[in-house]
Amino acid sequence: MIKKRVGNLLSALAVSLALVMSTAALPPLSAMAAVPADNAGSIQWSDASGDPSSGSNAGGGSSEPDVEPIGGLEIVSYEITQGAGNVPSTITKDMTFSLFIRIRDNRDGVSSSYNPEAKLNTSSFTTNSNIYPQVTKHKTSSGAYFTLDFQLTYTGVGNTVQFDLFYHNNASVPVQSLSLTLNQCVESTDDSSDSSSEPSRSTGFVLKSVNFGGPNVTAGNVFNLDAELMSTNGTYGVENVSVNLVLPKEISLSTGQSISYVGRVGPNQTVPVAFELLPSAVAEEGSYTLTISVAGVNAEDGSAVTADMDVTIPLVQPERFEISNVTAPDYLTAGVDDGSGFTSVTLVNKGKETINNVTVYVEGEGLSTDMGRQYVGNIASGSQNSADFSIIASTPGQIDAKIVVEYENSRGELKTLDYPFTITVEDFSGGDDGMIDPYPIDPVPEEPEGMPVWGWVLIIVGVIVVVVIVLVVILKKRKARKAAADLEDDNDEDF
């Protein structure tokens, strides 16, 4: 009886020891992804405000990955589930499971309105589809958040999930590769399984980046289109790769050809392409789509590899709105509006689009106009209009002034044109009432210093009078002497 009890006790101890050993063989809980059964397949946000920046699961099932942020992207947490919310403690070869990954994108220019997608590029896992649409997304003060749902099957080799993240509706955001290590994976020990038995994966192409020199291009001006194409991480490369640019009728090549031969492209390789383009000078403003078409041959089986990537180009017409003629005063009298301040501005629209809501006014210290801010209205393409007003100065001195033209272009942007000029303002020295005499008296010229002119005239006249009197007296005396002489001669004859 005693031997039987001892045997039972030893059997219980053996079972307990086996349970302890099996528990010790499991990976640590921090490396396991646990999801409550009643919340299977969904991310639980713990922050009451809706900000998932903490990266924790309300039920404690979200794992915190030990990864550093890459290029502004960060894997915040992940969850692994199998079946109806079950959390597998290990992942073995040929096991299929769901992987939910939560990502924060802190890159500048990334909006919550963009649609992130991911393409698997690892040999450790396979899936029936490579591209997965976003599951949920929203924008917070610390970045754009979204989750990706992968349905994976483990191949038994390695334990790293690697994928490329890109945005279909914003090609300007670069493609970024991310990876996540799953410690639950148990590699296969089957010697018959080697790299030669791995399924081959085809290589495709995605648009990594594109640049056309700014937010838009100008009609009639040459611009450069620079793009980077990246081959996906397939098993084999692509031979005889060529890139063809398909253009809308409003945009043509400035130089070169629309087809560029690249040659062989290996897996996960970046290919730069560049084209010099010229949009038509008469093209209407708007967005135009061109297509970068890639074609090649799979190096493994000779099958065709093709990819078409669209690039949207915003096109604008140049603004050729200008001030063609200005009539403005050089001199003014302070406080006087006598018409000398007449000013005229002629505006011409030589562009292809209408210029809207044109307003004209003058700026300058102590200056104003009789019209204030003069509204001109809209000026159609190929036409002109003018604004006439009178400038009034309140203070004397030399004033730096300018005529300002405000308007809106066809894109609703508020812009201005300036015409600077200088006015000399003189002080008014008229009567106390400040009004100018409409019938001014010509000023009497100042007399020169010394004898005035009229004095010299009187002297000359006096001299002439004296001379005349002297001559008259002399003539009278001569006449008297002659008369006396004649009388004496007559008396002599009588005797």
CATH topology name of the largest domain, in short, is Immunoglobulin-like
| pLDDT < 50 stretches | 1-6, 12-62, 191-197
User: CATH-wise, what's the superfamily of the largest domain?
Assistant: Immunoglobulins
Radius of gyration: 51 Å
Number of domains: 3
Percent in helix: 10-25%
The top-level CATH class of the largest domain is: Mainly Beta
What percentage of the residues does DSSP assign to strands (E)? 35-45%
Principal-axis shape = rod-shaped
Order of helices and strands: HEEEEEEEEEEEEEEEEEEEEEEEEEEEH
- Which second-level CATH architecture of the largest domain applies? Sandwich
Number of helices: 2
The helix/strand class is mainly beta
Can you summarize the main beta sheet?
5 strands, antiparallel
Distance between the termini: 234 Å
Look at the structure and give the mean pLDDT. 75
Number of strands: 27
Blueprint of the fold:
Layout (H helix, E strand, L loop, with lengths): L1 H24 L47 E9 L14 E10 L10 E5 L4 E2 L4 E3 L2 E5 L2 E12 L5 E8 L8 E6 L23 E7 L5 E2 L4 E9 L6 E9 L4 E5 L3 E7 L4 E10 L6 E13 L5 E13 L4 E7 L3 E3 L8 E8 L5 E9 L3 E3 L4 E6 L4 E10 L3 E12 L5 E13 L26 H42 L1
Parallel strand pairs: 11-18, 20-27
Antiparallel strand pairs: 1-2, 2-7, 3-5, 3-8, 4-7, 6-7, 8-9, 10-12, 12-16, 13-15, 13-17, 14-16, 17-18, 19-21, 21-25, 22-24, 22-26, 23-25, 26-27
